[in-house]
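User: Structure tokens for both sequences below?

Assistant:
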Amino acid sequence: MYESPNELFETARGFCLSHPQTFEKLSHGSPAFFIEKGGCFATLWDNHHNDGNVALLVAAPPGMQEAMIETDSAVFYRPPYVGPSGWIGVRLDKGLPWVEVEDVIATAYEFIAAKRKRPTKGRAS
């Protein structure tokens, strides 16, 4: 059964907002998901700049982007703008099981949450 972009986004949105201290706001015209006092870990793109993708973009630890794209390049891709920083594009309309989408979102959330907890250079602990 085909799900509309809105249905796909509502499911992904639910997964994103299920994590502690998360909130949604528009960022560059797209729904994005943030950790309070932290950073963005996911965003939703619907045909962004006419790329034809109904996609979830997620932050990822080093090496994950390449591994995911190598695993299934029909689903995973290097998105413009944030791809050079390691983010992964996930085409939601390609039938990836929701449990796998949920895992990718959890990994993104945990990566950004951990990144925000690390002390920055020169900052006292």
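Moving on to the next sequence.
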Amino acid sequence: MRFIHISDLHIGKKLKEKSLIDDQKYILDQIIRIAEEQKVDAMLIAGDVFDDGNSTTVDAVTLLDDFLTAVSKKGIAIYMVSGNHDSMDRLEFGSRLFTENKIFISSTFKGKPESFEMRKGDEVVNICLMPFVKPVHIREFCPDVSSSYDEALRTVFAGIQLDKSRKNILVTHQYVVSGTEMPKICDSERKYIGGEEAISASIFDGFDYVALGHIHSSQSIGRETVRYCGAPLKYSGSENETDKSVTIIDTSDDLEITEIPLVPLRDIRIIKGPLDKLIECGRSDTEGRDDYVFAILDNEEMDAMAKLRAVYPNTLSINVRGGGDDDVIFDVEADLEEIDMMGEFEKFFKNKTGEDMTDSQKRIVKGIMEKTGVI
């Protein structure tokens, strides 16, 4: 059997308030064409389907609906899990109806990974779906589970018995590492991962292939068959030189993995230099004129944004170079301050009551924040 592995679609995402819906539709249509050309039997979608599941726009919902419908009409089964960006309830809505069309969605943790059999001729592949979870979600089923992500996930997978006479595939969305080996990350996901969320790839040793989401660069971790496929589009300035692709898995005989490149509607580019030189280059840059541009100028200039947008209409930000080439932050997400929600609540509590929170109160509030996805 052949599978196509994708993740981190982040449908509805914006770059500096610039909607990417057209870019996402273009790349999803390309993914459908690749799936058809590669004659895949199923699509594995490893989470972060929406960019913000709690405030998803009509355009984003419509785009996902069109995408799933088009894939299903090609006779391609879909196995999808939720990620940390997704609303569990929203993604699972209509899942029973989807199942009738071979669209299998695991959005909420139900005590163990959901398991499905896929058959083609004499070949049987077992596909397990494990949505993004925190220890607090697992604790609802295992009250004594550790607060460590690694230990909590290890507890869940320790109880799974796999049939080794067939191929076993896991689709999940977690921050997976291997010993001291950490995945390469970029700025678009940096604020959503951390050391305490890390789990070991060894937890999944029983699976022939692990389809991971969460990291935006395609790469393997620990072994070739534990794999992040990466996001299909560049979602930060730091990804400007990162190639995007989808992963094809062939389970016939020995498991074979192939990457198929993706070509975006508009690329992300970093341009540097004096404003007049950048404008001069832009006038002759017919192929890259519509790309998303992050500009780093040598000096401050009056009306620089308006002048640059006259040749590069999708210029998203301008920064001025400091003392050297490396001291300018051009990350699209860099201006978003990471908020310590627990710390802010403690300050709010003291402002209202005049007292510091007790350890017991902190544990209660932190538990509520974790359960509701605030932290």
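User: Anything stand out in the second?

Assistant: The chain has three domains: 2-261, 268-320, 341-372.
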